[in-house]
Design a protein that fits this description.
single chain, 77% helix, 0% strand
Length: 166
């Protein structure tokens, strides 16, 4: 069924209201924990932006060092090789309640990798720093998923904090 065209100026309030109605309802009824969602969203966007910039910069650094295409491929693959082999162990570690430790460790690994890529411009340096950055990225993407799963909705958090006699 086709909606009739509105004669009012096209704004989000009038034309796109059905599309965002469910989200607006969830936000109004506090089913979404914004104290967790906003920092989590900002940190994830920041990590993904930095990762994209650093990986492109690493490729240009490899070209600047006159490395062959095979070396360029190995350095690019180093981001995922070690994390693939240890992802299950990291996931089990996070499942045991170590999501905050894993996030801090991931942030530390990520910072060390960025510093290594900035100051260590050799083939070995690019390979090691890219591998460390992949490990940090794994930790930074896996631990918030567990944190959001473990966090109750605001209504449940209030209920959980009330005394049992009420």
């Amino acid at each position: 069924m086709q909606q009739a065209l509105c004669r009012r100026p096209c704004t989000l309030r009038y034309c796109d209201a059905p599309m965002f109605e469910k989200l607006a309802t969830r936000l109004r009824t506090s089913e979404v924990d914004l104290k967790l969602l906003i920092p989590l969203l900002l940190s994830t966007v920041l990590v993904q932006m930095v990762t994209a910039i650093i990986r492109i910069t690493t490729s240009y650094r490899a070209i600047e060092l006159n490395l062959s295409i095979a070396w360029l491929g190995l350095i690019a693959a180093a981001f995922a090789i070690l994390p693939i082999f240890i992802a299950v162990q990291v996931g089990r570690y996070i499942d045991r309640g170590n999501d905050a430790r894993t996030a801090w460790a991931g942030a530390g690994l990520f910072l060390v990798a960025c510093a290594g890529l900035a100051f260590w411009s050799s083939v070995e340096g690019l390979f090691v720093a890219t591998t460390v950055m992949g490990m940090g990225h794994l930790c930074l993407m896996a631990s918030p998923a567990q944190a959001t799963r473990n966090s109750p909705a605001p209504a449940q958090a209030v209920r959980a904090s009330l005394p049992r006699s009420m």
